[in-house]
Design goal:
The protein is an alpha/beta fold. The protein has one domain: Rossmann fold (3-Layer(aba) Sandwich), CATH 3.40.50.720. It has nine helices and seven strands, in the order βαβαβααβαβαβαααβ. The protein has a seven-stranded parallel beta sheet, sandwiched between helices. α1 links the parallel β1 and β2. The longest helix is centred in the middle third of the chain and has 26 residues. GO terms for molecular function: oxidoreductase activity, acting on the CH-OH group of donors, NAD or NADP as acceptor. Keywords: NADP, Oxidoreductase. InterPro entries: KR_dom, NAD(P)-bd_dom_sf, Sc_DH/Rdtase_CS, SDR_fam.
Length: about 260
């Protein structure tokens, strides 16, 4: 692994000249991360569903003077996922950073949880991430540089309630992050993950709309509030930049203190 550059501290966080491929950036945490990476100097390729007409993230990145490209792909279509990385390279050139932020949630009691929902959650939240990580490794390892950032969950550590597939996928994604780091750190490719706590996004709208669960969760967060998408701007830039050069296989928890309690 290359050593951390001996440059002024703030320069360590610069992403000037870097190209990023990110999923799940049309809204929420992914959107906040995509904008932060562009603000740090990166050009960005966004993976969006073919049916999406949301260009807000791309428009905002272009307004910053950075390039924003879009690759259309439904992450539940695994055959299509296999071609995403190559298409991003065609649009931007070398990819220096991969961010796997796209995901879905399905809620139901375990005795009622359908096989179709199980398969969809595992495919989108785990297998699609694996396929993109593998493609990134094939691209980055020969070049001996790259950053991969996966998005895990508190359910990487905990079981949750009525979300068995999501917990299984995120638990596995945490282990996949460590497994890839063990292989690729020596190749100067850092693989890490960000672990969000309870964040006020549409994925948690059912919890936010349930007064009892909202109170139970809120009372347990030491910071005294739910997280917001912008809380991930700094962690994303850190893990994408040279500032995290010696950070390998880390699951960075951003949860307002939930896990500490």
């Amino acid at each position: 692994m290359e050593k951390t550059p001996a440059v002024p501290a703030l320069q360590l966080f610069s992403l000037a000249g870097q190209n990023v491929l990110i999923t799940g950036a049309t809204r929420g945490i992914g959107q906040a991360c995509a904008l932060a990476l562009a603000e740090a100097g990166a050009d960005v390729c966004l993976v969006q569903r073919p049916s999406s007409t949301n260009t807000a993230t791309a428009d905002a990145i272009r307004a910053l003077g950075r390039r924003a490209e879009i690759v259309e792909c439904d992450l539940s279509d695994l055959e299509a996922v296999k071609g995403v990385f190559a298409r991003a390279v065609e649009k931007l050139g070398e990819i220096h950073v991969l961010v796997n932020c796209g995901g879905i949630q399905r809620r139901a009691p375990a005795v009622e949880f359908s096989e179709a929902d199980w398969d969809e959650v595992l495919n989108v939240n785990l297998k699609a991430c694996w396929l993109l990580c593998q493609a990134a490794g094939q691209h980055m390892v020969p070049r001996r540089r790259g950053k991969i950032i996966n998005f895990c969950s508190l359910l990487t550590y905990q079981g949750g309630i009525t979300v068995p597939a999501y917990a299984a996928a995120k638990g596995a994604l945490g282990q996949l992050t460590k497994a890839l780091s063990n292989e690729w750190s020596k190749e100067n490719v850092q693989v890490n993950a960000i672990v969000p706590g309870y964040i006020a996004t549409d994925m948690n709208e059912k919890l936010l709309a349930d007064p009892a669960r909202l109170r139970q969760i809120s009372e347990r967060i030491p910071a005294g509030r739910w997280g917001e998408p912008h809380d991930f701007a700094g962690p994303a830039v850190f893990l994408a930049s040279a500032a995290s050069q010696y950070v390998c296989g880390e699951l960075l928890v951003v949860d307002g203190g939930w896990m500490g309690r």
